[in-house]
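User: structure tokens for Ectonucleoside triphosphate diphosphohydrolase 1, please.
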Amino acid sequence: MKEKNPWHTPVTIIITVIGVIAIVALVTVAVLQNRPLAQKYKYGIVLDAGSSHTALYIYEWPAEKDNNTGRVEQTHSCKVKGPGISSYASAPSRAGESLRDCMQEAKLRVPGKRHLETPLYLGATAGMRLLNIENSSASDVVFHAVEEALQKSPFSFQGARILSGQEEGAFGWVTVNYLDDRLKQGLETTGALDLGGASTQISFVSDNFDGSESPENAVAFRLYGNDYNLYTHSFLCYGKDQALRMVLAQQTQSGPGTILDPCFHPGYNETKNYSVLYDSPCVSDRKPQGAPATFTHLGKGNFSQCLDVVKSIFNFTYCRYSQCSFNGVFQPLLQGPFGAFSAYYFVMNFLNLTDTSIPLDTVRKKLTSYCSTPWDQIKQQHPDVKVKYLAEYCFSGTYILTLLTEGYNFTSESYPNIKFIKKIKGSDAGWTLGYMLNLTNMIPAEAPDSPPLPHAGYVSIVTVIAILLFVLFILSLRPLWPRCSKQPQII
Ligand SMILES: Nc1ccn([C@@H]2O[C@H](COP(=O)(O)OP(=O)(O)OP(=O)(O)O)[C@@H](O)[C@H]2O)c(=O)n1
Ligand SMILES: [Ca+2]
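Assistant: Done. Predicted tokens:
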């Protein structure tokens, strides 16, 4: 007689089918309930109204994870054509109009259904700070014009304002450390060096700085459960365009008709206007009396003489604190790695000097040879570089070297701690991202609770446990199993 397979009894078949359905249902429900939601993104837009130009940045982050670090990314940037908004003091409506093309781009880049909820900020820096000092009603009128233009956009406009130098420095530091994922992990932070056209910022955490010696340089943060005592300082007028004005003012004190400038290439020859040069609060009090309307700006191309004249715009002697950078400003001991961005990067990248393992002596030699290269030859070698930028790289390289070594006290040993950077993981280094993260409360003071397991681990564990439970259940039914005997039955 054919032996009957004990598993083929109706009871076991039913139990097995129900068991399998239960496991599938259990795992499906558990997984569906806890799966990461389909990626929806939120957006934020920041306009960086700098002294030399305005740039628009669009940031994007997964909608359900606002609080997680490293999740906000720059998806697009747009450079506004023309000069910075502070240059439109005499034709303010054009400041608003100048933003139109980039705002149009933003409308196309941010999905239509997100427009209304997308915050839009405009922050102005040193150009508007200077205009505000010089003529505060002119700066109000410029703000009014850009606000009017931005209110017409479909985005949620949150206002236009001038950032303080402290904010500009601190938000640059937040950006760099957020993008490097250093804040949430509580890692040693990176200092931030920002060189603009009209001001320059230095920000870093130093163990021997608690703010007591110079409270105006202290910014305290609590981010992801970690406390930071940040040192930050912004030097107004020490951005590279205003520094150049000061260097030219130094050489035109007596109101000459011609200057032979060591910071410009031999053969450089331009006629410049005294009133244009001195039209800035950084130099206006030094305007020579009885000077002609113009002067001839000739290049001499001598790096070491250029160093001397650049040094003359710094005061290295006066200091009422335990230690100073320059101009009597307190600065604690430099500490840790530094990221140097904006004009630091543009200039050092152009000069092929972004590699800071190049010894400072070699940097000086390279600048000596670069500055002494005839202007015609420089123009021939770089036909695609804007002539205004090109003419100034010898000065700018010399200025950067002086600011870093004599100003901030970087030495041959600490210079390699600087990294000249433009972007970090696809997002530009600058104050804008930190500014937006702060205003949207996207960096919590305390560390967010995170699920103990990653999603894949969770799914595997639920599946394994469900199968184990089922096997246990089947085993527990053992007494009910049909007896299976191999002995031939005796009739
Ligand atoms: N490819 C480039 C682009 C810009 N620049 C110079 O870099 C400086 C501007 O730097 P930026 O960081 O854009 O300054 P702003 O933000 O406009 O100024 P600030 O931050 O002081 O308001 C200007 O001197 C500009 O001539 C340069 O040398 N090469
Ligand atoms: Ca800037």
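User: Anything notable?

Assistant: The radius of gyration is 32 Å.
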